[in-house]
Every structure is written in C-alpha cells, then in structure tokens.
Automatic annotation (TrEMBL):
Keyword Transmembrane listed: yes
UniProt entry keywords in alphabetical sequence: Cell membrane, Membrane, Transmembrane, Transmembrane helix, Transport
Main subcellular location: membrane
Similarity section: Belongs to the binding-protein-dependent transport system permease family.
Coiled-coil blocks: none
Gene3D superfamilies, per the entry: MetI-like
UniProt organism field: Micromonospora peucetia
Subcellular location: Cell membrane
Stated name of the protein: ABC transporter permease
Upper classification of the organism: Bacteria, Bacillati, Actinomycetota, Actinomycetes, Micromonosporales
CDD domains per record: TM_PBP2
Transmembrane segments: 35-55, 126-151, 172-193, 213-232
Membrane topology: Multi-pass membrane protein
Feature: compositional bias, Low complexity: 1-15
Length: 347
C-alpha cells in the first residue's frame, strides 16, 4: 500500500493591494484631523467677518433700499430692519446667520442686489479657470527654467534668470497688468485690453474667451513665477550635490537623465509644499488681475463688495477662500506622502 503524497496548498496569490505601498495608510486619520482643525478656523473667520459687519456704521436697510432709501419713510426702513432682525442681539444674529449658512442661504448681496449664492455660482468658475490656468503655466515654466538654471548655475543664463526673477518679484501685479495692456493691447493691438468676450459678441465662444484670457493668465503667471523659479533653481542645485546624483553621474548616465530623473525628482518634494503654501497669494493676485482686466470673476465682485461694505458677499468669499486654502494644504500633505515613501501619514 502506497502512502499518498502530501498535498501542498497553493501559495496565496499576491494581490495588487498587498504589493501596493502603504504610503497613504493614514490618509483617513489625517483628513479627520484636518476637519477638526478646519471647524474652529472657519468659525473664527466667520465670527471676525460678522463682527466687522456689525461694527459698520452703514445701515443695512438703507443699503438694501439703495437709491430708494432717500425717499423711503422711516417706517418702511424700520420694517426692513425688523424683517432682517438687525436689531436683535449679536449672538442671535450670528446663530441665525450660521443656521442659514448651513442650509445653503448665504444672504443677500447689497452691492449686486441678488442672492450671494447666485453671485458665487455665476462667477466662481471664471476665477477657478484663471487661477488654474495660471498655476499650470507657473509650474511648467518654473520647473523648466529653474532646472536649466541649476544645471548651468553660474553661467549667463543662470545670472540673467535670477536678475529677471528678482526684478519681476519687486513689481506689483497690477503694474504688470497695466504694462501688458499698454504694450500688447494699446500699442501693438495683438490682444484685447479686457473683458471676457468682445463687445459685439452675442454668446460665449471658447476661442474668444481663450483670446481674452491670454493677457490675464500671462500676467498672473508672470507675477507668481519668480518665487517658484528661484526655489526650483536652489533645490535642484542642492540636489545635484547629493550622493545618489553623483553616483548616477559616475555610472556614466546621460546628463539629461541625471538632471530630470534624479536631481529634479528629489527637488520636487519640497516644491509640493511651496505650491500649497503659496496658493493664498495666487488667489490674492487673481483678485487684482480680474479688477485690472474687468473679468467677471470673484475678484471683481470682492473689490466691489469691499467698496460698498457688502458684508454678506465679503463673508461668503472669505469663507470660500479659506476652504480652498485648507483643502490645498491637505492635498499638499497627501501628495507629499504619495511622492515620498519615507513619509508616513499614520506615524
């Protein structure tokens, strides 16, 4: 009688999940922690904006009435105040405003004479398009120019690029915008001076919009590029002296492979942090660019709301900007952990 051969259980197949690096293992925990931090930040921001609005000497009833306030009776103005509850205690007004905010009611814009939600819905997309296109152009130009300057550090290209970056960095963004209009729109006549479409346009043609956005996107990108170019230049120059880059050179790898495959890859990690922390300044620059070029984005209405003491609209745009900045910082941390295997979110 022969003894049957022992059966060997097949080894469990390695799944993609098992082979996948656990770089984002603690992403859920980080998101929950950031949400806990975001709540008091948003609360403090809203309280500050609400306190500024309450301290304003401007009567909200007269703002709502507009030109009719000069002929309106005191009884009508008092009725508007009663309907809005502006005579209630400040804590009551704030809690009512927060309750309406959680329900999607952001209030009434006294400068635009329409609901704040309608203002944001109609204009937020154009601001996001301007900021997104400018950011993509900044990243592409800074990575290319900064890397080449680091590779040829000390040469004429490096010196010229740094001098230009320092000069542009000292120029206000509105001055760059006005100079661009004077040169490319008024003198050369190549591009329109402002607006989103031509005056005679009856619709929104994508080609016409793209032509009108060339100057605003270029001005915003030029005003923000020096920070990123100088950072990439210094980071890549430092990375070129690292041991693994010197070893790659010693193995006889081509200069392009050493530069873009080793030095630039190491320098990109702190570059992610710069992108996240520099986003508020990019948004602030977009406000000025939209004002100079008369674009129908949130920047123009924010300036109009500030000049007209439109606190409901100012509070909404400030909260929206705060949410964008907090989200960008969270995305930066997650991107850093995904790019660098040494960073663990669950530590």
């Amino acid at each position: 009688m022969t003894t049957p051969a022992p059966t060997v259980a097949p080894a469990p197949a390695k799944t993609n999940a098992g082979r996948r690096p656990r770089r984002l293992a603690g992403a859920g925990t980080v998101v929950r922690r950031r949400l806990l931090v975001a709540v008091p930040i948003l609360a403090a921001t809203s309280i500050g904006m609400f306190a500024l609005g309450a301290a304003s000497p401007i009567d909200p009833a007269q703002q709502y009435a507009g030109a009719a306030a000069f002929t309106a009776s005191e009884e009508n103005l008092a009725q508007i105040r009663a309907n809005w509850g502006v005579d209630d205690p400040l804590p009551v007004q704030y809690l009512r405003w927060v309750g309406n905010l959680l329900q999607g009611d952001l209030g009434w814009s006294t400068s635009r004479h329409e609901p704040v939600t309608s203002v944001l819905a109609a204009r937020a997309g154009w601001t996001l398009l301007l900021v997104g296109a400018a950011l993509a152009l900044v990243l592409l130009a800074s990575l290319l120019l900064g890397t080449l300057a680091a590779y040829r550090r000390g040469g004429w290209f490096d010196r010229a690029l740094r001098a230009t970056a320092y000069a542009v960095q000292s120029m206000p963004v509105f001055w760059i915008g006005l100079a661009a209009i004077a040169l490319f729109a008024l003198t050369l006549g190549w591009l329109p001076a402002g607006g989103l479409t031509d005056i005679t346009a009856t619709g929104t043609d994508p080609a016409d919009v793209a032509r009108h956005l060339i100057l605003p996107v270029g001005v915003l990108a030029i005003s923000q590029t020096p920070w990123f170019v100088l950072f990439i230049r210094d980071a890549v120059a430092e990375s070129l002296r690292d041991d693994h880059v010197l070893a790659a050179r010693a193995r006889g790898l081509p200069g392009r492979t050493v530069l873009f495959g080793h030095a630039l890859r190491t320098a990109l990690l702190p570059f992610l942090t710069l992108v996240g922390t520099h986003l508020p300044e990019l948004i602030g620059g977009a406000v000025l660019v939209e004002t100079v070029f008369s674009l129908p984005g949130l920047g123009a209405v924010t300036v109009q709301a500030a000049l007209g003491s439109d606190f409901p609209l100012l509070a909404a745009t400030t909260l929206a900007t705060t949410v964008v900045v907090l989200t960008a910082n969270l995305a930066t941390d997650l991107g850093y952990a995904a790019a660098d295997p040494r960073v663990r979110l669950d530590d």
